[in-house]
Amino acid sequence: MKHQSSTLAVPETSAVPRHVAIIMDGNGRWATKRFLPRVAGHAKGVDAVRSIVEACAERGIEFLTLFAFSSENWRRPADEVSVLMRLFMTVLEREVGKMAANGIRLKIVGDMSRFDPKLQEMAAKAEAQTAANSRLTLTVCANYGGRWDVMQAVSKMIKDKPGHADFTEEELAPYLAMAYAPEPDLFIRTGGEQRISNFLLWQLAYSELYFTETFWPDFDAKALDLAIASYQQRERRFGRTSAQVLDQKKAS
Ligand code: IPE
Ligand code: IPE
Ligand code: MG
Fold it and tell me: Is 147 strand, coil or helix?
């Protein structure tokens, strides 16, 4: 499906965001605060994922994108990285059946080639098993980086169109890893940091940004509703004036 690009046209907007993208940050600090090992925070973070996926589906959000592991997270201590990898596998093993039954379509996006072949295989199977679902598309970004995404798209585009120059935004868009989704309406980062950390750089061009101090393991349906309420207060101008936005609202 082709989606409107926020820079080429003014996209349609609605009270409930169609696409919510979240940087799930603060697992380690959640655990440290409780004198627990950091990995306990990651485990607890999985519970939050479960409840937020369901809460999003209930609210009619069509796309939920979660940043699970960045291309820079390999810099962490080897034991934390390996625990995270095992956690991904366990989650895939335990949760995919439930997702399939609950109408969730799962997509795993990122440079998967760096993962254990077993994990790659499980991810591919999980995608296949849930491919026909349409209640909510859940994208998990793993070994994902916004710059990686743009560069892999550029490389593929150039390979497909040898001898071409002066490419357009429209030509690049289908090669981006999440070409199947509209651009995020609402971006949420938990854990208090106010930065993008190489998440969806291209796609966040006109997303509304929401930052909360709440650590990811504590982020629940109520916290999600606060983020949505904040989103609903925003005037999405996409470069236009406020008067133009109001005129358009009156006309529709
Ligand atoms: C986010 O929580 C999860 C991953 C990056 C995998 P952190 O592990 O970054 O938690 P903090 O930021 O150290 O508290
Ligand atoms: C961003 O969190 C990545 C994920 C949540 C997966 P980080 O904790 O890695 O980000 P920085 O290092 O604080 O920017
Ligand atoms: Mg962090």
Answer: helix
Nearest Cα residue to 26 out of 200, 227, 214: 214
Residue from 141, 197, 200, 214 whose mutation best tests the ligand 2 pocket (most atoms within 8 A of CB): 197
**Alpha helices, DSSP H only, in 173-241?**
221-233
- Given 47, 73, 79, 218, which residue is catalytic? 73
- What domains lie within the chain, and their CATH numbers? 19-251 (3.40.1180.10)
pTM for the full predicted model: 0.97
Instruction: Give percent of the chain above pLDDT 70.
Output: 100
The Cα–Cα gap between 192 and 216 comes to: 10
Both tokens of 87, joined, read: 């956690």
CA 18 to ligand 2 centroid distance, Å:
24
The phi, psi pair for 44, rounded to 5°, reads -65, -30
Interval 107-155: pLDDT, tens: 999 999 999 999 999 999 999 999 999 999 999 999 999 999 999 999 9
Q: CA-CA distance, 242 to 252, in Å (whole number)?
A: 16
Question: Hunting for tokens 């799962």 — which residue is that?
Answer: 106
Identify residue 128 by its one-letter amino acid code.
A
Flag whether pLDDT at 1 surpasses 60. Answer: no
